[in-house]
Automatic annotation (TrEMBL):
Belongs to the DHPS family. It comes from Kaistella jeonii. Transmembrane segments: none annotated. This is Dihydropteroate synthase. Pathway: Cofactor biosynthesis; tetrahydrofolate biosynthesis; 7,8-dihydrofolate from 2-amino-4-hydroxy-6-hydroxymethyl-7,8-dihydropteridine diphosphate and 4-aminobenzoate: step 1/2.
Length: 277
């Protein structure tokens, strides 16, 4: 498949996606499923950003609310409080970094935009906040659109569909049309691994990645430490680095442009192998 040469306009700076890049995860949450509480303090968060950038991350994705099953549901004010002044602190310390904000609240998006974020990462696809899409449009930032069930309460419920790929492509098409009608130009697609899909369906998506939107928009894959990999193997989330890299290699070969990961160094090696194969 010919590389379409995607790029993202991040506040006037073009982020080149002609070759795949790494998005490192920075959880500012005490209850995240894999690293809760580790980077809750500002110094710890800055140290982790430095580590991930050194290991090869291009984007740092900041999240102030865990979306694991049975996580505590937070209001936007709590997310904003947890973010504090970290965004401008990171920008000052690491001026070359591209910052993504993981939230499903338009109010938090506006706060993050004012503080200096470059990308919006919304796991809700605009479903959890009716003002999300119009707020995204006003910021002019690139937007990561994830496939997910319609409500917060249902986001982890496995709704079995006969043809997941067909349903997903219809979902993306409708959401993309809505976003573009509002003036949103840069849209990244995320199939939503770990959200409301069976183990079999998630492996189907890994095997058929190239048919998600048929390569019309850049694709982000987030399978890091996901239960559909470690539970069938009887392992812990921290024990599947090798298996995860095999799947990363697979999706890179099928056109993925961004890998959202906890283990940046290992994912960077996988991208290097892919580029030098």
């Amino acid at each position: 498949m010919k590389d379409p040469g995607f790029s993202l306009n991040c506040r006037g700076k073009l982020l080149d996606l002609s070759t795949p890049i790494i998005m490192g995860i920075l959880n500012l949450t005490p209850d995240s499923f894999s690293d809760g509480g580790k980077h809750f303090e500002e110094k710890s968060a800055l140290d982790q950003v430095a580590k991930m950038l050194k290991e090869g991350a291009t984007i740092i994705d900041i999240g102030a609310q865990s979306t694991r099953p049975k996580a505590e549901f937070l209001q936007p004010e709590t997310e904003i409080s947890r973010l504090g002044k970290l965004i401008p602190m990171i920008k000052k310390e690491f001026p070359e970094v591209t910052l993504s904000l993981d939230t499903f609240y338009s109010e938090v998006v506006q706060f993050g935009f004012d503080e200096g974020i470059d990308i919006i990462n919304d796991i809700s696809g605009g479903n959890f906040d009716p003002k999300m899409f119009e707020t995204v449009a006003k910021t002019g930032l690139p937007y990561i659109l994830m496939h997910v069930n319609e409500t917060y309460d249902l986001m982890h419920k496995k709704l079995i569909e006969e043809d997941l790929l067909l349903k997903m492509n219809r979902y993306f098409s409708e959401k993309i049309n809505e976003l573009q009608s509002l003036g949103v130009k840069d849209i990244i697609l995320d199939p939503g691994f770990g959200f409301g899909k069976t183990v079999e369906q998630q492996h189907q998506l890994l095997n058929e990645t190239e048919f998600i939107d048929f390569g019309k928009h850049p694709l982000l894959i987030g399978i890091s430490r996901k239960s559909f990999i470690y539970k069938p193997l009887g392992k812990k989330h921290s024990e599947i680095v090798e298996e995860t890299q095999k799947f990363h290699q697979q999706v890179l070969e099928k056109g993925a442009k961004i890998l959202r990961v906890h283990d940046v160094a290992e994912a960077s090696k996988t991208v290097d192998i892919f580029l030098n194969r």
